[in-house]
């Protein structure tokens, strides 16, 4: 978490998964996370999807160049296309520059 | 969605809800969303929480001033404190400036 400091970039991906994303979805989603983690400039990723199929994934990157390179990765291009046509009813991607961050953790109990 | 354009701000709140957040949690979470929506400068909110209790909420704001005012709202201060001590094992808040956004929607079937 400490690397995702001010000055880094967040890619906020919101998506509504459709009711029947098909067999390949889970494996492809896992593969994208593994692949992202292996890219230069990758800092971290967090993901949550509720029972209604709406999900948010935020990935963190060192620079705009790192985001651009990942966007052009052949396997990622292919997965995005499947996402658009097979898995998601809609999705939005937002690129944002992190200005500041705070954390808190429960101590004790 | 159209208001959350480049130049606006995203507040990315990631949290691990604990196993037994207690009775008040759901109502308080709903209340915070309603209250946020009523604040000046509020543009939108998206939220997802998976079965493991990890969740991401992203709210969008017109300006840093709007974020600051919401942060200081008395009921929000109180809810954050309960979140820290009762509901969440840990949480992180990141404020980021939206640089660009893309959407896609499946057409037809």
TrEMBL record, chains A, B:
PANTHER family: ABM DOMAIN-CONTAINING PROTEIN, BLL5343 PROTEIN. GO terms for molecular function: monooxygenase activity. The keyword tRNA processing does not apply. Gene3D superfamilies: 3.30.70.100. Residues 8-95 form the ABM domain. It comes from Caenispirillum bisanense. This is Heme-degrading monooxygenase HmoA. Keywords: Monooxygenase, Oxidoreductase.
